[in-house]
Amino acid sequence: GDQNYAHWVTCTLPAWLYFRNDLLPTGAKLIVGKCNRFQNEALELLGIPESALFHMPLEIVEFEALSMLSPIDMWCAGLYVGAMGRTIADLATAGGGRPLPGRVYLSRRDIATRRLLNESRAEAMLVHHGFAPVLCSELNFADQVRHMASADIVVALHGAALGNIIFCRPGTRVIEVFPEYCAQPHFRVLAHLARLQYGFVQGTSF
Q: By C-alpha distance, which of 137, 85, 139, 130 is closest to 104?
């Protein structure tokens, strides 16, 4: 699931943070596969240098010592998620920067699946109420984190970008919009672990 953003944020990013805090100072290396853009940006934000990475080759490798974490699953994410999200949000916002909107609408208009048929009307209504439409595909990893860390209210369609709610401040209100076949618990669970206020709107698929 590392190529799916929401799974990666909740299943792999915690291991990277643990490596940064506890193993990087010992000279250990982090085993990674082929990293995509947002994963490379996360490594940069965490301050994990290329010299600390071991890219697994397509051949047999023998290690002197190998540490492996127990598997982490987005469907039953642990209490670590809230603390991890706040730690990474602190890293991303440490430099200050320009003020970001408090009301955020995470759009999926650039993605073919699970799009609102009337999104232009819905977005216009949200903009009227002070929401700023955000396309996470247009932002780097640190900016996605900063948007969530600054938000007071997040309205989002069910999708990978919603995994970013773990970077919200406790008490942030989150409204998830989904069709009936996506009535799934994981984003509600992530909201609970990050101490957010969660609600949902269920629509009908066509």
A: 130
